[in-house]
Amino acid sequence: MIDLSLLPPPDVVESLDYEVIYQDIADQFASLYPDFGALVESDPAIKLLELAAYREVQLRARINDAARAVMLAYAAGSDLQHLAAPFGVERLMISPGDPAASPPVPPTYESDASLRRRVQLAPESYTSCGTFEAYRFHALSVAGVADAAVLRPDPGVVRVVLLAAEGDGAPSAELLQMAEAHLSARDRRSVNDAVEVVAATVRRFDIRATLTLYPGPSAGPVLEAARAAAQAYAQSVHRLGYDATLSGIYAALHQPGVMRVALQAPLADLICDDTQAPLLGELSLSVQEGADV
């Protein structure tokens, strides 16, 4: 599957520079009115030129946004749902919420990242040959599934490993049964395949570290930035077959203002196979100020 984040920026999306656009308008105006000599910034004509340049920047930015909205790599929200529709893919409802609660609990829907990934996989479902990616697409199309891996432990046996979207990622018995019924439907399962659905193994890891700061920055914002980055890294690797690595943790904790990271845990990379997913347990960060440099 193509990594959309590695695609080059689209040529149709142009970079915008107000000063360049303003100068172009001013030059055109000067060519039309060569006798106009008002150079005072407060002159109404100059203000009109500035307004025209500003509005053109706004218009071009809107065109850029419209171009991105029809690209799978950039589309979001309802724009992404319209891109998904021709593939027969709809945004999944993870939880219906509770409109009768006080205050009402709104429904929870599939994220843009998850929907985008399923759109990429959708063509795999067109085959009737039971490919790995076809089974993965159908597994990810079950509401509540965050990730899925497809294995073939024995001839004729397809084992689908599920990671749940809620909680710590361990799927409930109900979700496993729902997925198995979905994958075993006659229009999805190859006639020679026996499909079994199993739960992923969630492997917890803790992050404990002391951050030495450069003199000057307030510790609070630096600590919060490091904490947020560590949580974002942990979320990014909470996938089947992903590893939680020391290098990734160090990179997350080395935020601006951090001089050195002393990591107490983990002490080694957490290596996971396709049936396992890392999950952040305890996140404990402390700070100390370094010597003048």
How would you describe what is shown here?
The structure is a single chain. This protein is α/β, with parallel strands linked by helices and 293 residues long. It folds into 3 domains: 4-68, no CATH class; 83-93 and 103-199, GMP Synthetase, Chain A, domain 3; 202-289, no CATH class. The chain has 8 helices and 8 strands. The strands form 3 sheets. The chain has a 3-stranded mixed sheet with strand order 3-4-5, with helices on one face. Strands 7-6-8 form a 3-stranded mixed sheet. Strand 4, helix 6 and strand 5 (194-199) form a beta-alpha-beta unit.
Report the mean per-residue pLDDT as an integer.
92
Q: What is the CATH architecture term of the largest domain?
A: 2-Layer Sandwich
Bin the strand percentage: 15-25%
Unreliable stretches covering 5 or more consecutive residues: none
What structural category arises from helix and sheet content?
A: alpha/beta
